[in-house]
């Protein structure tokens, strides 16, 4: 699963060039999650997940607080969560998750991004079956064996635990996301290098240099769309 972690790591490393866009998207995610239940992460699981992710991207507190306060207020902005599936160059597979207040606009923008950048949209289910919903949590300062012992003591199951470049990466079922974090926090581990609910490809493909450049341009265009929340793919970069 090392390459899968690399894809997440590369996405996080690129955030510095897109800070304002990423913060704006997190503000929207936090607002929507807070509106779905109580604006308190201790009683709102969806909000807690988003806040854990936001922390790993160093989203400023004032942006988080402003989104939660907006959710508490009388303003009511409606958003739909959508998933698009499609193909990039040479049959590469892409999943696009969006959060939008204008479904028609978002559908048109995503379709245009695919068609203008060597890709094409697929029907619902044409790609997602090749991906697994996965909780990915990374920490520093412990070995894989130490993390395994912590999880075993807490009776928390993980799919896999790998140690890469001084970071221990835990892969688990999505419903174990909070249980893994709580087990680690109970041992004094409160900082995470990654804390994601993501879609990991079952297999990865490698593209030749020309196809890879086209593919990366398509991913950049999709991720730049205001309504796009997350983009997942099966290309080894």
Automatic annotation (TrEMBL):
The keyword Protein biosynthesis does not apply. GO terms for molecular function: DNA binding. InterPro entries: Integrase-like_N, TACO1_YebC-like_2nd/3rd_dom, TACO1_YebC_N, Transcrip_reg_TACO1-like, Transcrip_reg_TACO1-like_dom3, Transcrip_reg_TACO1_YeeN, YebC-like. One of its GO terms (biological process) is regulation of DNA-templated transcription. Residues 3-74 form the TACO1/YebC-like N-terminal domain. Pfam families: TACO1_YebC_N (PF20772), Transcrip_reg (PF01709). It comes from the Bacteria. Residues 80-235 form the TACO1/YebC-like second and third domain. Its main location: cytoplasm. Coiled coil: none annotated. Keywords: Cytoplasm, DNA-binding, Transcription, Transcription regulation. It is found in: Cytoplasm. GO terms for cellular component: cytosol. Belongs to the TACO1 family. YeeN subfamily. This is Probable transcriptional regulatory protein AZF04_10430. It comes from Alkalihalobacillus trypoxylicola.
């Amino acid at each position: 699963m090392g390459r899968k972690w690399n894809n997440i790591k590369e996405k996080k490393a690129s955030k510095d060039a897109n800070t304002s866009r990423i913060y704006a998207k997190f503000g929207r995610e936090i607002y929507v999650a807070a509106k779905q239940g109580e604006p308190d992460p201790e009683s709102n699981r969806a909000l807690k997940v988003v806040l854990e992710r936001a922390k790993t991207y160093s989203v400023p507190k004032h942006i988080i607080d402003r989104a939660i306060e907006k959710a508490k207020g009388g303003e009511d902005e409606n958003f739909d969560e959508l998933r698009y599936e499609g193909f990039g160059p040479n049959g590469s597979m892409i999943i696009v998750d969006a959060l939008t207040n204008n479904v028609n606009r978002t559908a048109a923008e995503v379709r245009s991004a695919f068609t203008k950048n060597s890709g094409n949209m697929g029907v619902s289910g044409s790609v997602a079956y090749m991906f697994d919903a996965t909780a990915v949590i990374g920490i520093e300062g412990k070995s894989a064996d130490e993390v395994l012992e912590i999880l075993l003591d807490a009776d928390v199951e993980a799919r896999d635990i790998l140690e890469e470049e001084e970071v221990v990466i835990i892969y688990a079922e999505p419903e174990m996301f909070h249980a893994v974090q709580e087990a680690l926090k109970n041992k004094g581990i409160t900082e995470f290098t990654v804390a994601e609910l993501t879609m990991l490809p079952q297999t990865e493909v490698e593209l030749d240099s020309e196809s890879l450049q086209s593919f990366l341009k398509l991913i950049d265009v999709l991720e730049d769309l205001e309504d796009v929340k997350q983009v997942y793919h099966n290309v080894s970069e």
